[in-house]
Amino acid sequence: MKNNITKILILGGGFGGTYTALHLEKLLKNNKNVEITLVNKDNFMLFTPMLHEVAASDLDANHIVNPITKMLKKSQFFCGNIDSIDLEKKSVSVSHGLVNHSHELGYDHLVIALGSVTNFYNSSIIEKSSFTMRTLSDAMELRSRIIALMDEADFECCAHIRIKLLTFVVAGGGFAGVETLAGINDFIKDSLRFYNNIKPEHIRMVLVNSGEEVLPELSKKLGKYAKKQLESDGIEVICGCKVKEVLDGIVHLSNGEKIESSTLVWTAGTASNPLIKNLKCNKERDRIIVDEFLELPDYKSVWALGDCAYIKDSSTGKAYPPTAQHAIREAKVVAQNICSCIYGTKKKVFKFNMLGQLAAIGRRKGVANILGINFSGFIAWFLWRSIYLMKLPRLEKKIRVALDWTLDLFFTKDLVKFVDVSTKEITTEAEKSKA
After folding, report:
1. Does the residue 427 lie in any domain?
2. At residue 244, what are phi and psi to the nearest 5 degrees?
3. Inter-CA distances, 206 with 123, 150, 273, 275, 355, Å
4. Torsion angles phi and psi, residue 8, rounded to 5
5. CA dist., res. 332 & res. 349, Å (int)
6. Are 56 and 189 in contact (CB under 8 A)?
7. Per-residue confidence of the chain (435 residues) as pLDDT tens digits?
8. How many Cβ atoms from other residues are within 10 Å of residue 348's Cβ?
9. pTM given for the model
10. Same domain, 310 and 382
11. What are 110's strand-pairing partners?
12. Residue 410: how many CB atoms within 10 A of its CB?
């Protein structure tokens, strides 16, 4: 090691990468011979559990993100792109700036926490035609799309076209799909008072789920309850079915049904970060296989966690699910094991039992399973807000989110369109329908 400095390089600024850096800072705060560098394309960490509330205009977008430079005290932060990873040479190629200025970053310990991307299952048409819900930009774009469609539908003279403009299809019955559709359903219905020509019967919300129950991550009982509540709010839930394609403004389902819609939100699957596919290491379903210490068996001092890692639970023989609560616990173990390597102590085995899962399914309604106990309705919704508010990093953001929620009790949702969403394609489809 040059100058006796141990270089720790962390790739990814999500839950896994950021919390690894935070834990390392605590554990190595008195060690001046360690250099920690975190690389991420965005200069903030996104609190993804609240992402759908941005799309539904419940929260200000700035309030669910934390600048990484404010979170980290000892670590260096490189805001840029990760171009390639060479495990043999122990080097990572990165670039940044308007001209993509490139750098080579060496390391003694590498932490791979690159997360996942949306899986469109090789359908370029769906990829081009749909919205996603993985980034802050996604949520803001969807919010602006909703407002643009309401603005257009309010002055659309043809009822048939107005319904098409206000028909929203969400593919995927997991947490992201259910929470997104429930949120935007409330958003639109709460906004109707400001649109004289839009009536409740003009709005159509459709959730398409490949499984037999929504929210399969929870119990079947909670899944049935969630489905019943969604339907009571006017949302159509189609189970055992998939979105096959989107052609000329029509969503084609695998059961033969066709839905005229101007907006498809795709939350039906995830895939590993493309950088993972090019790594020359053992993988399972494009996820990096690690041992019980979260270290790559063939590359010592290389660690992986979060969505991009395949971590087997020894008690079940199955992989741990790619959730935020797992990534946070994995980050702590990775940090401890890196320190064990530095100081020559015994490494720690990763073992974690899920504490519970929660989902918001509309205004003041939710479902939750905490330590094996099911909750539903207002209690589950209150638990959802309380638990995630506690988990949101930094006191400043906690206060801002709490204020947003409080003000929401007294004021209507904001209908300002922050992102410039072109309606040219929508208008073209409307003109086709008229013809």
Report:
1. yes
2. -85, -45
3. 21, 17, 29, 34, 31
4. -110, 120
5. 11
6. no
7. 456 899 999 999 999 999 999 999 999 999 999 999 999 999 999 999 999 999 999 999 999 999 999 999 999 999 999 999 999 999 999 999 888 899 999 999 999 999 999 999 999 999 999 999 999 999 999 999 999 999 999 999 898 999 999 999 999 999 999 999 999 999 999 999 999 999 999 999 999 999 999 999 898 999 999 999 999 999 999 999 999 999 989 999 999 999 999 999 999 989 989 999 989 999 998 999 999 999 999 999 999 999 999 999 988 999 999 999 999 999 999 999 999 999 999 999 999 999 999 999 999 999 999 999 999 999 999 999 999 999 999 999 999 999 999 999 999 999 998 877 654 343 434 444 444
8. 17
9. 0.92
10. no
11. 9, 302
12. 6
- Would 58 be classed as within a structural domain? no
Q: How far apart are CA 252 and CA 259, in angstroms?
A: 7
Same domain, 246 and 381: yes
DSSP 299: E
Domain, as residue range, for 409: 124-268+356-434
How many whole angstroms separate alpha carbon 176 and alpha carbon 169?
13
Q: How is residue 10 written in tokens? A: 């962390």
Rounded to 5 degrees, φ, ψ at 57 are 60, 25
Contact between 225 and 236 under an 8 Å Cβ cutoff? The reply is no
Rounded CA separation 245/251 (Å): 6
SS3 (DSSP) at 28? coil
Euclidean distance between CA atoms 276 and 259, whole angstroms:
36
Q: Residue 101 is encoded by which pair of tokens?
A: 């200025």
SS3 404: helix
Give the tokens for residue 368: 């939750």
H-helix or E-strand spanning residue 168? strand 167-171
Q: How far is CA 98 from the centre of its chain?
A: 27
The most distant pair of C-alpha atoms in the chain lies apart, rounded to whole Å, by: 75
Q: Please check whether residue 215 is in contact with residue 226, taking contact to mean a CB–CB distance below 8 angstroms.
A: yes
244: its two tokens: 């096959």
Which of 317, 343, 369 is the endpoint of a domain? 343
Among 391, 384, 312, residue whose Cα is nearest residue 352:
312
Task: Based on the fold, state whether residues 418 and 333 are members of the same structural domain.
Answer: no
Query: How many residues are listed for the chain in this entry?
Result: 435
Together in a domain, 243 and 289:
no
Tell me which residue has tokens 């909703």.
Answer: 146
